[in-house]
Amino acid sequence: MARKLTLNFLKTEAAAGAILALAALSAVIVANSPWAADYFAFLSGEHTLQVGSLVLTESVSEWIKEGLMTIFFFVVGLEIKYEIVRGELSEPRKLVTPVLAAIGGMAVPAYIYLFIAGQLGGDPAGWSVPVATDIAFALAAFGLAGRGLPPSLRVFLLTLAIVDDLGAVAIIAVVFSEGLQLQPIAMAVSGVAVIAALAALWRLPAVIWIAGFLWVWWFTLEAGISTSLAGVAYALAVPINSRVQGQEGPLKNFIETLHPWVAFLILPLFAFAAAGVSFIGLSPERLLSPIALGIAAGLFFGKQIGVFFAALLAAITPFGAKPSNATWLELYGVAALCGVGFTMSLFIGALAFPGAVDSPAQVDVKLGVLGGSILSTIVGVTILSRSAARRRALERADRQALAAKT
User: Fold this and answer.
1) How many structural domains are present in the chain?
2) How many whole angstroms separate alpha carbon 340 and alpha carbon 335?
């Protein structure tokens, strides 16, 4: 069951990577076209949601970030819970190498950003931007280059990305939840608790799940907490096992139902809203601003250094192991792909530097994320595709030698 869900996840994410890339490219094109002013004005336009005495006014970009992206984090939470209970994260012996690699892949990029920011006088608030890996893009790139490579590398990348997502959620919880209001927090927590209790006793209809989700989301927003945490927390209330014998549990049903919507609609929409950066009037100095340079270097250098050497350290201990049948060069190629931050990095960047989507800090964030992610993709795909080609050539030679003997 766990393997089937993992393979479906990989297939969906790999396909969604192309849609994400198209959405990001479209955003950059529009942001540098005659429609640029309309694009940025639309994203900055405010819309109000009122339910009784409760009123919430946000810009379009904020509605996407704080609204639709909550569903994305709900799915992330479901996948993390499933992997911990049933999947790759349920076997401690399989966790040592990817978990240490994920930790290294978060710590080193943050250090590199802070070092560059300190040397160039940049804002240290961006240290958290390059710590995240975009699982959709990374798996899409691996799928493009990895035909013929050991399946263990895919599992390693998926497990690392899940741990990375968990780390990103923890960073959001600790760093970007300020001015907390205790009463709304209590209301949100009570919503999760009530849904969890009801789900443990009865099979709940979809309308109850939706109502509970909206309750938790609203009061999380009112409490001053990033709504990404509402999605993850609500996922914890979803049971894995079904109350009806022979049927799939609610958690797996939610993943299979929501994952295509997240992968093919919500994430591309967020990418279109977040990746648009105008190059008009940008000077070379701006392209090398401390924020942009720190993020790009953190993603490109920090991720591959942190992931690879942490995995190497784990592999030489009695507790960890290199992915089976994989070479160190192939592992390095996977480490390079972890520098594709994109969606998660843009999301964290919007939290680290709040403001208009075309503000100077947001432009720097986008330049750094796009630059680091593109370089990481090029290096990772090049290494893995050449390694896969060598493997295929060796397999052909072996088959030909065997055929000659017979």
Assistant:
1) 1
2) 10
Domain assignment present for 185: no
- Strand pairing category for 54-59 and 46-51: antiparallel
- The Cα 2–Cα 93 span in angstroms is 17
What is the Cα–Cα distance from 296 to 153, expressed in whole angstroms?
Answer: 25
**CB count, 10 Å around CB of 74?**
26
- Which amino acid, one-letter code, is at 308? F
Residue 218 in any domain: the answer is no
50 three-class SS: strand
Give this prediction's pTM: 0.74
CATH number at residue 260: 1.20.1530.10
Which backbone phi and psi does 161 adopt, to 5 degrees?
-65, -35
User: Is residue 385 a part of any domain in this protein?
Assistant: yes
pLDDT digits (tens, 9 = 90+) for 88-124: 666 666 678 888 999 999 999 999 999 998 899 888 9
Decide: residue 34, CB within 10 A, 0-12 exposed, 13-18 middle, 19+ buried. Answer: exposed
Q: Please give the Cα distance from 401 to 284 (Å, whole number).
A: 56
Structure tokens at 72: 């994305």
